[in-house]
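STRUCTURE:
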């Protein structure tokens, strides 16, 4: 067997053209990184009569492209679990927002929110102790510290109501925002009578191209029944107008005729891979999905969200909301609605837009 040497001589036009392609690729990569850095995550919790208000707040946030975690009437363990998950998501977000619509009390200089089942009736009838609050309620500061973990930071807005059954001696319903604490986000406290104001401000802000938390808070605090621990000391964007991206003009390369022609011995022909359309079984689609990394699944959720099909959290977990979004995507293509993406659909999602 005789092995023949293969020589590839790149001409100047080839090098310049490849450099241009590399530059365009870097621009597109920068665009993608910027989109990922603009990720905003919100936690929306309601206990008691505030469920409808919290649902409306969540809908307004989602309309601005904010990913939301929603919890309705959680008990102590459920709410603590939700806060831990929110903390994980906050570390991967540019900004965060927390909306709490639930009973809240102050005790011994600290503020607490009351999960479902953490009633105070036992305190008033003499069977309980005020110190039991430490095991049943959750400090408001815990939400503020978690929100602050995002790149830009975050904020907490809480609509407070009085717990059922009255308050024991030594406790009081929260009526004003607590003092600012280092390492914690701003906290806005809204009285139950002024609760509709939160939705009005968020809805009005959502009509703008850019939504900044400090500006929202200024609109809220001019009203009675609203107080803020402190305004953010730097801009925190819940929604930001996309920045124009400049793409370099096409470059025309004129070959240097004095340059010797390239010499290629025994070139190997390369054929671009072809996508073969073949029916795939549900089992094959499930295996395909399991083989995807969590990062790839986040990209799919982000693309489905950009298309207006997905309103959930971009967390790389394909739950019921993702299945519904995939089904809607398949419906728009007049394809079989399985809730599982085919190889062709995966490719199209990655190249669209």
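SEQUENCE:
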């Amino acid at each position: 067997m005789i092995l023949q040497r293969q020589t590839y001589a790149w001409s100047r036009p080839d090098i310049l053209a490849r450099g241009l392609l590399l530059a365009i690729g870097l621009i597109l990569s920068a665009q993608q990184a910027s989109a990922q850095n603009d990720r905003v995550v919100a936690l929306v919790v309601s206990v008691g009569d505030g469920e409808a208000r919290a649902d409306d707040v969540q809908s307004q946030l989602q309309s601005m492209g904010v990913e939301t975690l929603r919890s309705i009437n959680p008990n102590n363990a459920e709410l603590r679990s939700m806060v831990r998950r929110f903390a994980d998501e906050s570390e991967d977000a540019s900004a965060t927002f927390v909306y709490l619509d639930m009973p809240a009390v102050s005790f011994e200089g600290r503020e607490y929110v009351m999960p479902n089942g953490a009633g105070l009736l036992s305190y008033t009838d003499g069977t309980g102790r005020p110190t039991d609050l430490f095991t049943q309620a959750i400090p408001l500061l815990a939400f503020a510290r978690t929100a602050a973990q995002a790149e830009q930071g975050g904020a907490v807005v809480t609509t407070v109501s009085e717990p059922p059954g009255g308050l024991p001696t030594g406790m009081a319903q929260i009526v004003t925002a607590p003092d600012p604490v280092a390492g914690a986000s701003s906290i806005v406290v809204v009285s139950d009578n002024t609760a509709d104001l939160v939705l009005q401000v968020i809805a009005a802000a959502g009509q703008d191209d850019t939504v900044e938390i400090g500006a929202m808070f200024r609109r809220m605090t001019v009203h009675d029944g609203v107080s803020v621990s402190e305004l953010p000391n730097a801009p925190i964007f819940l929604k930001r107008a996309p920045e124009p991206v400049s793409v370099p003009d096409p470059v025309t390369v004129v070959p240097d005729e004095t340059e010797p022609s390239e010499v290629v011995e025994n070139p190997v022909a390369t054929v671009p891979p072809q996508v073969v359309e073949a029916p795939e079984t549900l089992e094959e689609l499930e295996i395909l999905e399991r083989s995807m990394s969590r990062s790839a699944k986040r990209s799919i959720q982000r693309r489905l969200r950009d298309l207006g099909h997905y309103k959930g959290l971009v967390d790389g977990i394909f739950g019921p909301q993702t299945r519904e979004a995939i089904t809607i995507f398949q419906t728009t293509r007049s394809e079989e609605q399985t809730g599982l993406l085919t190889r062709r659909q995966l490719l199209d999602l990655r190249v669209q837009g």
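REMARK: DSSP finds twelve helices and eleven strands in the chain.
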